[in-house]
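Notes from hallway chat w/ T.B., transcribed later so I don't forget. T.B. wanted the structure written out for a chain they're using in a teaching module, and asked if we could keep both sequence and structure tokens in one place. Agreed to drop them here.
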Amino acid sequence: MRHTLLALGLLFVSSLASAVVDVTDDLGQSIRLAQPARRIVSLAPHVTELLYAAGAGDKVVGVVQYSDYPEAARKVVRVGGYTSVDMEKVVALKPDLVVAWKSGNRDAHLDKLRGLGIPVFINEPRKIEDVARSLSQMGRLAGTEAVADGAAKAFRERHAALQARYSSRPKVRTFYEIWNRPLMTINGEHLISDVIRLCGGENVFARLPVLAPTIDTEAVLAAAPEVIVASGMGEARPEWLDDWRQWGKLQAVSRGNLFFIPPDQIQRHTPRILDGAERLCGQLDEARARR
């Protein structure tokens, strides 16, 4: 009898140990949960999309504004914006995990959540491969590893195929325009810059020290890009992309290389970024054909 009880006790302890989740976030912090998260609050639209792609959508109880993909995410309770989180709403949802975005969320909000004893996992993809890694991390946090790892594998395979096809093609000097007023771009550490490299492009502002710097028109003219790619705010091509036409001697203008990619396809750190990559790779091929 004593041996039976001991065996049952060891089995119980073992099952508890196996339920423990321990994942290192993108700041190098170990996030330890007693069991996979059941109530998750997402503090960035791309995080929401990653959670759903990782099979954890039914565990998401709160999201920020613009969490609009997939369609099911539109029905989840809003807790403000990623820079203006409604802390009372977050706490009222009784989350056992908050997944945040280093570049978008305010440290003060995250520190307050930690102070309340709520685990906070930081996500900050900087390379295309980081998207696959993020999917697997979300799966481990939510206990949906099978779905998450399958999605990560499919993503890596698609990424590898694009890399094999485009990365060794002749370089194309590329200026990526996030916005026009103020005029903003990305440096070489940004995920979008990795997409440009994937397509055989060269980010003309890669060496700037700030992740998403503000620049001026003179800097763009001096950089002499062969291609200008803009994103804007939605599915429609922004009218301000055509403002560059006044600089007729700019190679991107004289060769007709003013391109648009919907921001959801290239500015969200999710599996859909490969949709944007395919589109960009095709645009850079158009530019090569016009040489």
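Follow-up for T.B.: The longest helix spans residues 145-166. Might be a good example for the class.
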